[in-house]
Specification:
single chain; 2 domains; alpha+beta; elongated
């Protein structure tokens, strides 16, 4: 909650309120490194309410939105359509939605793997920035990738989890497994071991997934994580169009 408060410019206690709160958006100096301006609005819920941080021009719209619906319905369709209908004339749209997971201290343990696993330090990752490992590693932010855990079938890398120092105290886990090696426990093995290694280094591991990516969500839960918070981010329509390869 401290980190989310830094990300959007609220107080950590705001997430514990039983009413939704709207604050001016402020990207903190220690916000997660992948946050990129412009951001029109960011809605965050830890399961108690919605804390919405937005720029001045969208304040009244967003306040009406979070007061109109129960907080958990603010992340659902068709309610998002209500929000988009009012934001799109102003050049904004809902762009990102994600569910975030934290480790359960009572459940997290390094799970067994049917293949050999190896701890890979930063220098070991340099040759692994390839399409098949694009979730485990981030080629756009190589300097933030700290270390990883690989699963090997002989000399062949078949599964990889990597962690990115996306905040000073919180490191994000990503994971990939080659298609022909999936559904045999590799993802959970490398994810859980990496999470334990992150904790041993004094950091908090976190895991992010689209709510509809059932395979990823199942891996998070199997690896000893639990759903902790959700986010929905509003950005300019032009940015969303760029992501879709469209231009207006």
């Amino acid at each position: 909650m401290d980190q989310s408060a830094e990300d959007i410019g609220c107080n950590a206690e705001d997430f514990l309120s039983d009413r939704s709160i709207v604050v001016p958006f402020r990207l903190g100096s220690n916000a997660k490194k992948y946050y990129r301006l412009p951001i029109g609005c960011d809605l965050v819920s830890y399961g108690n309410n919605v804390v919405a941080a937005c720029t001045d021009e969208y304040f009244d719209i967003v306040r009406s939105y979070v007061n109109r619906f129960d907080f958990y319905h603010c992340f659902e369709t068709p309610n998002m359509r209500w929000l988009n209908q009012r934001l799109e004339p102003l050049g904004q749209t809902v762009c990102f939605m994600a569910e975030y997971f934290l480790p359960d201290a009572d459940r997290l343990t390094a799970l067994p793997c049917p293949y050999e696993t190896r701890l890979l330090e930063k220098t070991d990752l340099e040759e692994l920035y390839l399409p098949e490992w694009s979730n485990a590693l981030c080629s756009d932010r190589k300097h933030l990738d700290m270390f990883g855990v690989g699963a090997y079938d002989g000399g062949k890398l078949v599964g990889l989890s990597g962690c990115s120092a996306d905040a000073d105290e919180m490191w994000q886990i990503g994971v990939d497994v080659l298609p022909e090696y999936r559904k045999n426990g590799i993802a959970a093995a490398v994810t859980s071991r990496l999470a334990a290694e992150i904790i041993d280094r004094g950091k908090v591991p976190f895991y992010c997934s689209a709510w509809s990516n059932i395979r990823s969500v199942r891996n998070a839960i199997r690896s000893g994580f639990f759903p902790a918070w959700v986010e929905m981010t509003v950005k300019p329509i032009s940015k969303a169009d760029d992501m879709n390869g469209e231009h207006r």
